[in-house]
Amino acid sequence: MRLLSWLRSLTLRVDSTHAHRVPLRPTFRPRLEVLEDRITPTGGLLDPTFGSGGIVNLPSNTDISARDVAVQPDGKVVIAGEALTSKGNYVATVQRLNPNGTLDTTFNGTGSVTISRADYSLAVALQPDGKILVGGDAPLKQGKTYVDEPLIARLNPNGTLDTTFGSNGLWVSASPNYPVEDLAVLTDPAHPGTVTGIVAAVGGTHFEAVKLTPTGQLDKSFGSGGFALTNISGQALSVAADPLSGEIYLAGFAGYHDIGALAALTPKGVLDTNFSGTGYVQTASTDYYDVVVQPASVNGQSVSRILVGGETWVQSPGSGIVAAYTPTGTLDTTFGNGGSFTQAGLAGGTGAWFNSLVVEADGSIVLGGGQTYGGGYTEMLVGHLTASGGADTSFGQDGPGFTVLQEGNNSSVRGVAIDPTNGDIVAAGEDMDNNGLRHGATLRFTSS
Predict the structure, then answer these.
(1) Whether 150 contacts 201, CB under 8 Å
(2) What are the φ and ψ backbone dihedral angles of 6, each rounded to 5 degrees?
(3) What digits encode the pLDDT tens for the residues 260-279?
(4) Which residues 6+ apart lie within 8 Å of 316 measured at CB?
(5) Which residues of the chain are under the pLDDT cut of 50?
(6) Which of 11, 94, 179, 324 has the fewest C-beta atoms lying within 10 Å of its C-beta?
(7) In the sheet that 227-241 helps form, which strands lie side by side, from edge to edge?
(8) Strands 259-265 and 280-284, how do they pair?
């Protein structure tokens, strides 16, 4: 098996070949507590109109892991991940579900598309015109080993490759030999329906981004020939763009791990030294897995707040974290508790982490990730914060603002999205059944 990027090598936090199995949590966990007046949370419940009781699991020949998710304006759900072929090889897949969770057969006739050039699809993004961007890797054999070539594909709304993009629908680069970890679509602020470019975070040994034109060619005005390679040792796992300033943010970890890093690039693809004086900030005992830009208002002026989510080990055994930064690279102390929100394990769980963030129209924040339980097994976690970084007490069944869900011995949420038709939360990830087999999982939760 060839070596994949760090994030993908940690598909599960524990070895999937455990000889023993931890007993599954009971569906209902009774607790004795003093009765008091309270508001029963209405958000964070599985939506029974979606799939089977709010959950969709697809067969392994089309879906063994859902890496990212997006929801179209019509409520259809687009999932990027990978499947396992009959020969035991991985292949990138994209699937589209109807709002009720069934496969949308108007998408490639089956509801599923295989990108045969790639073995993993790690990111999905929607263009305003309905076209679908997918980022991942294209395996290239060099001698007896394989390397990852970054790949971006664009699909038409019907699931066919868009031949007007790149080379017959694909952009693939022979260098660097690392996958595309995340994507962001750039649009014209004055004309939000007009795509001006596509920027991607490229995994590797240094923070790196690539920018393409709307037709899938390298944007030579960005960085060096379309690539922005920084001097930050580590790996960028996520990218976001500020629609107000055009600034591009990369989040991940510096060094080998355990140092969260957030970098700011100018629209030209160079580190912006107006951001913390160096163009980046670092946080010890932390890894960042996602970054988003949250619109905010200060004294009546529109500003942006940069949010990063991940995991921190400042206090054992580890907690999920969302930290907020101003455009100048300082902690925004008006957010959460002095600039961050942290959450340890809930309902008997221990260490928690946040893999994915998304900002709603009102500025509130949806979180997706996981937590450990039972001595190292994992379960899914979704959460909801207010715009100012507090737990939303109207959401969650397992603590203010949070719901945890066990799917087999090991499961986690990789991506979250908002359904624009009703505000519901769609989460995508993976689970493991009692036989140790992985499955992609897509879930829909009520928002309120």
Answers:
(1) no
(2) -55, -45
(3) 999 999 999 999 999 999 99
(4) none
(5) 1-23, 26-38
(6) 11
(7) 180-188, 191-202, 206-212, 227-241, 248-254, 259-265, 280-284
(8) antiparallel
Within a domain: 239: yes
Q: Is the dihedral of CA 229, 231, 237, 238 positive or negative?
A: negative
Is 200 domain-assigned?
yes
Which DSSP symbol is given to 247? -
CA 184 from centre of chain: 12
pLDDT value of position 60: 83
**DSSP state, residue 52:** B
Beta bridge partners of 242: none
Whole-prediction pTM:
0.91
Alpha carbon separation from 346 to 29, 342, 446 (Å, rounded): 13, 12, 19
Structural domain count of the chain: 1
- CATH number for position 265: 2.120.10.30
Residues 252 and 124: their CA atoms lie apart, in Å, by 18
Burial class (CB in 10 A: 0-12, 13-18, 19+), 301: exposed
Closest CA to 320 of 365, 291, 350: 350
The residue type of 111 is: G
- AA identity, residue 200: A
- Using CA atoms of 163, 167, 169, 174 in order, give the dihedral in degrees to the nearest 10: 180
| Cα 56 from Cα 76, distance rounded (Å) | 13
Does 421 reside within a domain? no
In a domain, 1, yes or no: no
Residues 6+ apart with CB under 8 A from 428: 66, 67, 68, 69, 79, 81, 413, 414, 415, 416, 417, 440, 441, 442, 443
Range of the domain at 248: 117-284
The pair phi, psi for residue 265, each rounded to 5°, is -110, 145
Taking only the tens place, the pLDDT of each residue in 182-222 is: 999 999 989 999 999 999 999 999 999 999 999 999 999 99
Residue with tokens 């994992």: 378
d(CA 47, CA 65): 21
- Residues in Cβ contact with 384 at an 8 Å cutoff, skipping those fewer than 6 apart: 43, 44, 364, 365, 366, 367, 391, 392, 395, 396, 401, 402, 425, 447
pLDDT at 142: 76
pLDDT tens for each residue of 149-174: 999 999 999 999 999 999 999 999 98
